[in-house]
């Protein structure tokens, strides 16, 4: 690499205390900068998010140290999901501490990550930028990346929840969705529900992805169990609720929340999906309202719940905003072919 910055591979899974603490300082700053409304993330939670816990979900890290190797000036992580779909796709997270921006640290890290992606046969590389750091958008434009989707990260404080409204949504479900019932489980999907749940999960392929080059995911029992194994390794409690069509027994909608044990005041609203043949019956509102009411009752220590949606997903955003969610950060999902990015990065680095 034609740069004075030395980029090194980082083995977080076998890190010593110096690497661990340097990584945590950078990761905490990155999180606070992108989502300031979220507050401090417990160090253990940040750390276990970073570690590899399943070979189907690999993460590879590179970093640049300062001269005395006490602080990381920047870190990049490249990862993917190793299944039969999206065999070319990879995703890069790139963070540089503010004093070292505009000094080509990010370019050196990006070059290492994209070269690695290409070597691994993953030449379609994704990056994101957020509206709190405009320099990130300019950098991605400079390396030839195209903005393909805008995502909205939204948050709802439990203190601001309108419980009577949610209770009203649940009550009205009897009028609009009398042929359906809700089924809940905590933790891994029970074997008696797994085939129906996996089949229903493929509805997430109908969620908007705008201009992203991304194939439909092929959801299988094995893929579900891999995800559950990662959640368990990271000490994330998961609560899932599905809607079952009583006349047919078909599972037609679902929602799930992730609850990090190491961050008990935090909740994440993960996927919510409804089979297109069963929409316009209020199933999404019913599921999300019942889930949130349950959390308020069962986990009163939670301060807020966050979620991510494509900015073009009007239906789900409409439900979220009606519940009281407010967008706190917008993300721009970008993609670039490895050869394009490497040519641009070589010119930047000189």
- Described by the principal axes of the CA atoms, the overall outline is globular
Q: Beta-strand percentage?
A: 25-35%
Order of the strands making up the biggest sheet: 1-2-3-4-5-12-6-11-10-9-8-7
Rg from C-alpha positions?
21 Å
- What does the largest sheet look like? 12 strands, mixed
Mean pLDDT score, rounded? 96
Summarize this structure as a short list of keywords or feature phrases.
350 residues; alpha+beta; Aminopeptidase; 2 domains; 12-stranded mixed sheet; 36% helix; globular
State the gist of this model.
The protein is built from 10 helices and 12 strands. It is of the alpha+beta class and about 350 residues long. It has 2 domains: about 5-150 and about 330-350, Aminopeptidase (3-Layer(aba) Sandwich), CATH 3.40.630.30; about 160-325, 3-Layer(aba) Sandwich (Aminopeptidase), CATH 3.40.630.
Please explain how this structure is put together.
By secondary structure, this protein is of the alpha+beta class. The protein has two domains: about 5-150 and about 330-350, Gcn5-related N-acetyltransferase (GNAT) (Aminopeptidase); about 160-325, Gcn5-related N-acetyltransferase (GNAT) (Aminopeptidase, 3-Layer(aba) Sandwich), CATH 3.40.630.30. Helices cover about 35% and strands about 30% of the residues. It has ten helices and twelve strands. The chain has a twelve-stranded mixed sheet with strand order 1-2-3-4-5-12-6-11-10-9-8-7, sandwiched between helices. The radius of gyration is 21 Å and the shape is globular. The termini are close together. The relative contact order is 0.17. The mean pLDDT is about 95.
């Amino acid at each position: 690499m034609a740069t004075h910055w030395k980029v090194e591979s980082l083995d977080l899974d076998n890190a010593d205390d110096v690497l661990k603490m340097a990584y945590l300082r950078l990761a905490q700053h990155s999180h606070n900068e992108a989502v300031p409304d979220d507050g401090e993330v417990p160090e253990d939670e940040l750390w276990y998010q970073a570690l590899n816990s399943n070979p189907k979900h690999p993460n590879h890290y590179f970093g640049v140290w300062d001269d005395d190797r006490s602080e990381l000036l920047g870190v990049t992580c490249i990862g993917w999901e190793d299944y039969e779909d999206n065999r070319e796709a990879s995703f890069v997270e790139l963070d540089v501490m503010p004093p070292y921006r505009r000094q080509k640290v990010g370019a050196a890290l990006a070059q290492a990550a994209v070269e690695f992606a290409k070597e691994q046969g993953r030449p379609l590389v994704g990056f994101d930028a957020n509206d709190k750091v405009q320099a990130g958008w300019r950098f991605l434009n400079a390396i030839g990346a195209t903005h393909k989707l805008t995502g909205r990260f939204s948050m709802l404080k439990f203190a601001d929840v309108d419980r009577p409204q949610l209770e009203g949504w649940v009550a009205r479900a009897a009028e609009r969705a009398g042929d359906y019932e809700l089924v809940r489980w905590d933790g891994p999907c029970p074997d008696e529900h797994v085939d129906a749940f996996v089949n229903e999960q493929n509805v997430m392929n109908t969620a908007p992805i705008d201009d992203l080059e991304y194939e439909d995911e092929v959801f299988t029992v094995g893929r579900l169990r891999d995800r559950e194994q990662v959640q368990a390794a990271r000490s994330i409690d998961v609560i899932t609720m599905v809607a079952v069509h009583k006349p047919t027994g078909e599972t037609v909608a679902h929602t799930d929340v992730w609850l990090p044990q190491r961050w008990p005041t935090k909740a994440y609203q993960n996927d919510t999906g409804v089979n297109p043949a069963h929409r316009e019956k209020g199933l999404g509102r019913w599921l999300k309202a019942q889930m949130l009411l349950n959390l308020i009752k069962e986990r009163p220590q939670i301060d807020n719940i966050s979620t991510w949606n494509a900015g073009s997903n009007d239906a789900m955003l409409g439900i979220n905003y009606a519940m009281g969610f407010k967008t706190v950060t917008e993300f721009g999902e970008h993609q670039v072919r490895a050869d394009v990015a490497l040519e641009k990065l070589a010119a930047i680095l000189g």
